[in-house]
UniProtKB/TrEMBL annotation, chain A:
This is ABC transporter permease subunit. The keyword Transmembrane applies. Pfam families: BPD_transp_1. It is a multi-pass membrane protein.
TrEMBL record, chain B:
This is ABC transporter ATP-binding protein. PROSITE patterns: ABC_TRANSPORTER_1 (PS00211), ABC_TRANSPORTER_2 (PS50893). The lineage of its organism: Bacteria, Pseudomonadati, Pseudomonadota, Alphaproteobacteria, Hyphomicrobiales. It comes from Rhizobium oryzicola. SMART domains: AAA. One of its GO terms (molecular function) is ATP binding. Keywords: ATP-binding, Nucleotide-binding, Transport. PANTHER family: SPERMIDINE/PUTRESCINE IMPORT ATP-BINDING PROTEIN POTA (PTHR42781), SPERMIDINE_PUTRESCINE IMPORT ATP-BINDING PROTEIN POTA (PTHR42781:SF4). InterPro entries: AAA+_ATPase, ABC_SmlMolc_Importer, ABC_transporter-like_ATP-bd, ABC_transporter-like_CS, Mo/tungstate-bd_C_term_dom, P-loop_NTPase, Transp-assoc_OB_typ2.
Length: 275, 364
C-alpha cells in the first residue's frame, strides 16, 4: 500500500520537474529557434506565427561585397586571434609568477586585472578613444586589439594562474633534479601540463573579443568595423534578417568553443581560479 | 674517518621564517655509502635532503661534493638525482619518456637512449610498460619508474625522500632489500630520508638520527640500536619503557636506590657518562624478562623490578604484558603468558638497560 503510494508520488514528482525542464528548454531554445527562423525568412509580419515565405536572399545581401559582413567577419577574427596571442604572451609569464612566487599583495595584483571591468565601459572607452586618437591608434586594428586585451586579460591571467597552481611543484623540481635548467623544466613540464587550462583561457579571450562591442565601437569605428557593430546597425535599423545572420555568425564559434572548454577545463584548475 | 668525505656538509643551517629548521649540521658521507636520515616528522630531515639537492638554500654552511663547493649551485648542476616521496612522475609522458628524460637532456642519441631505458626497465622489472602513462601504473610500478628515472642518469649521489612510504606494507619489505642490493651493485652514494626505524636499520650503512634540526646521534645500525647516546635516541629506537630511578656513582658501578618497584641494586657503569642523581631508565619490551615472584632464577647483572600484570595480549611470537611497576606501566614480552593480576618479577639485563641523567637531554 505504502509502496504503491510512494511510487505514485515519485511519478507525480516528475510533473513539476518536467515543467521546469520544459520552461528552461523553452527559454534557451525558443529565442534560438526564432533567430534561426529569421535568418531564412523572406516575409514575416504580425500577426503570423511563422514566416510567410522562406529563402536565402538575406544571406546573399549580407555576404555581398557591399554588405560589409565579410569585412566585419575578417576584422573580428583577426582582432580575436591577435587578442588571444597578446593576452597569452602576457598571461603565461604573469600566471606562472603569480602561481609560483611568493609575491606580496598577490590577491591585490589578481584583483587589479578586474579593474577594466569595474568601471562603466562607456566612460573608460570614451577616454581610451580620446587618448588613442592622440597617439594615432584610433581606428586601427592594433588599437582595437589593445582594448580587447585589457578586457580579456582578467580571464587569461586568472585561468593561467589557476592552471599553473594546479601543477605540483615537485613535478618541476623532478625535472630540475634530472638536470633541466629552469627554462627547460618550464617548457618540458609546466607548459604542457598547463596547456589545457591555457587553451581554455585562450578560448574565453577569443569569445570575449568576438563579442566585445563598446570598445570596438569607440576605438575601431568607422575605420575598423566588427561583427557586433554590424549586428547593432542591422538590429537598430529593423533589419532582423541581417541581425539574425550576424548573430548566428557570432553564436557558432561560441557554442563550438564552449564544448571544447568544457572538455579542457578540469575541476582541479577551476577550483583554483581567483585564488 | 681520516679521508674527507665524498659529500661533505659543514655547519648547515636553515630557517623557515624565524624558526630554525636545521642547526649547524655537520655530516660527511663516503663514496658508495648508504646513509639514512632518520627522524620523526618536523625534525628537519626532508629540509636537509632538499638542501643537499639544491631546492633549499641553507642560511649558513657549505655543501661540498668531491671537494667542490656546490652550496650556491642550482639543483640541475649538482650531479644528484632526487627521488620524491610523491614520485613526481610526469603525467603527460610515457614510462619510457619519464625514464629517458635525463638522458635526453644530456644529448644522448635516440637509439642509445632507447637501449638504456630498456636496460633500466629490465633491471627494475618494468618490461612492457614503456608506452604506459604513469596514471595507468600501480603504486609499486610508479615507485620503480621514479627510481629508474633517477638511476638512469648515473647520478653521483642518489637522494631518496621517503621513497617507500607510499607502498603497501608487504611490497615495502621486499623493496627495501631490492633497493639496498641495487645501490650496492651500482656503487652509488645514497642518502635516504625516512621516519621508519626498521627501514633505516635494514637498508643503511650508517644511520643519522635527527632531532629538532640537530644530529642526535650517528653510527652503524647496531651502534644506534644498542648504544643510544641520549634518552631521545633510546626512545626513538624503540626503548619506550621509562622508569625514573635514583642512582649514585660508586667506583665503576651505578648503585640504584630502592624505589616503589625495586630493591637496592647496582649495574656496571660500563663507560656511561652518568653522575649521581635522578636517572631515566629506558628499555625495550623484548629486553625484559618476566618471572613468577616465587621462582626467580639466578640472574646476571641488571635490575629486577616487582610489579603486577595489568593485561596480556598476543601480537605474535611472544606474549606482550602491560606490567605496573610502582606508578608506571611498562610493556614486557615473554614467551610464557602471565595472567592479568599476577605478581611478577621483571628483569632487565644491564646491557639492555639504557640509563641517562634525567635533567640532560630530556625527551620532548
Amino acid at each position: 500500500m505504502s509502496s504503491t503510494l510512494r511510487s505514485s508520488l515519485s511519478t507525480l514528482w516528475w510533473v513539476p520537474r518536467g515543467l521546469i525542464f520544459g520552461l528552461m528548454a523553452f527559454f534557451i531554445f525558443g529565442p534560438l529557434f526564432n533567430l534561426l527562423l529569421w535568418t531564412v525568412a523572406e516575409k514575416w509580419y504580425f500577426p503570423h506565427t511563422l514566416p510567410l515565405q522562406y529563402g536565402f536572399s538575406a544571406w546573399e545581401r549580407v555576404f555581398a561585397p557591399r554588405g560589409g559582413a565579410l569585412d566585419s567577419l575578417r576584422n573580428s577574427l583577426v582582432v580575436a586571434v591577435l587578442t588571444v596571442a597578446v593576452s597569452l604572451a602576457l598571461a603565461v609569464p604573469a600566471g606562472y609568477a603569480l602561481a609560483r612566487l611568493k609575491l606580496p599583495f598577490r590577491s591585490l595584483i589578481l584583483l587589479a586585472f578586474l579593474i577594466p571591468q569595474a568601471f562603466p565601459n562607456l566612460t573608460v572607452y570614451v577616454n581610451v578613444a580620446r587618448i588613442f586618437y592622440e597617439i594615432r591608434l584610433n581606428g586601427t586594428i592594433p588599437g582595437v586589439v589593445l582594448v580587447h586585451v585589457s578586457h580579456g586579460l582578467v580571464y587569461a591571467v586568472w585561468i593561467a594562474t589557476a592552471a599553473f597552481s594546479a601543477i605540483d611543484v615537485e613535478l618541476e623540481q623532478a625535472a630540475r633534479s634530472m638536470g633541466a635548467g629552469a627554462l627547460r623544466a618550464f617548457f618540458d613540464v609546466s607548459l604542457p601540463l598547463a596547456a589545457p587550462g591555457l587553451m581554455a583561457s585562450a578560448i574565453f579571450v577569443f569569445l570575449e573579443s568576438l563579442d566585445e562591442f563598446t570598445g570596438s565601437y569607440f576605438v575601431g569605428a568607422p575605420d575598423v568595423n566588427m561583427l557586433p557593430l554590424l549586428l547593432y546597425t542591422a538590429g537598430s535599423g529593423g533589419n532582423y534578417q541581417t541581425a539574425s545572420i550576424t548573430a548566428l555568425l557570432l553564436l557558432v564559434p561560441s557554442l563550438f568553443f564552449m564544448l571544447i572548454v568544457e572538455r579542457f577545463l578540469k575541476a582541479d584548475v577551476l577550483s583554483r581560479v581567483g585564488r | 674517518m681520516s679521508e674527507a668525505g665524498f659529500l661533505e656538509l659543514t655547519g648547515i643551517e636553515s630557517a623557515y621564517g624565524s624558526t630554525a629548521v636545521l642547526k649547524s649540521i655537520d655530516l660527511s658521507v663516503r663514496h658508495g655509502e648508504f646513509v639514512a636520515l632518520l627522524g620523526s616528522s618536523g625534525c628537519g630531515k626532508t629540509t636537509l635532503l632538499r638542501a643537499i639537492a639544491g631546492f633549499v638554500t641553507p642560511t649558513a654552511g657549505t655543501i661540498r661534493v668531491g671537494g667542490y663547493d656546490v652550496t650556491q649551485q642550482p639543483p640541475d648542476k649538482r650531479g644528484m638525482a632526487l627521488m620524491f616521496q610523491s614520485y613526481a612522475l610526469w603525467p603527460h609522458m610515457t614510462v619510457a619518456d619519464n625514464i629517458g628524460y635525463g638522458l635526453k637532456l644530456r644529448g644522448v642519441s635516440r637509439a642509445e637512449r632507447a637501449q638504456k631505458v630498456a636496460a633500466m626497465q629490465a633491471l627494475l622489472g618494468l618490461e612492457g610498460l614503456g608506452e604506459r602513462k604513469p596514471a595507468n601504473l600501480s603504486g609499486g610500478q610508479r615507485q620503480r619508474v621514479a627510481l629508474g628515472r633517477a638511476l638512469v642518469i648515473d647520478p653521483e649521489i642518489l637522494l631518496l625522500d621517503e621513497p617507500l612510504s607510499n607502498l603497501d606494507a608487504r611490497i615495502r619489505l621486499s623493496v627495501r632489500h631490492e633497493l639496498r642490493a641495487l645501490q650496492q651493485r651500482l656503487g652509488i652514494t645514497a642518502i635516504h630520508v625516512t621516519h621508519d626505524r626498521e627501514e633505516a636499520m635494514v637498508m643503511a650503512d650508517r644511520i643519522v638520527i635527527l632531532d629538532a634540526g640537530q644530529i642526535a646521534q650517528q653510527g652503524s645500525p647496531e651502534e644506534v640500536y644498542n648504544k643510544p647516546a641520549s634518552a631521545f635516541v633510546a626512545a626513538f629506537m624503540g626503548a619506550e619503557n621509562l622508569l625514573t630511578l635514583q642512582g649514585s656513582v660508586e667506583g665503576d658501578r651505578l648503585v640504584i636506590a630502592p624505589g616503589p618497584a625495586n630493591a637496592l641494586g647496582s649495574v656496571p657503569l660500563a663507560s656511561r657518562p652518568l653522575v649521581s642523581g635522578a636517572i631515566e631508565a629506558r628499555f625495550r619490551p623484548e629486553a625484559a624478562q618476566l618471572f613468577p615472584v616465587d621462582a626467580i632464577p639466578t640472574l646476571g647483572p641488571g635490575m629486577t623490578f616487582r610489579g603486577l600484570v595489568r593485561s596480556v595480549s598476543y601480537p605474535g611470537g611472544v606474549w606482550r604484558h602491560v606490567v605496573q611497576l610502582g606508578d608506571r606501566e611498562v610493556l614486557a614480552d615473554s614467551l610464557q603468558a602471565f595472567a592479568a593480576g599476577d605478581q611478577v618479577a621483571l628483569h632487565v639485563p644491564a646491557p639492555s638497560l639504557f640509563l641517562f641523567n634525567s635533567d640532560a637531554n630530556r625527551i620532548r
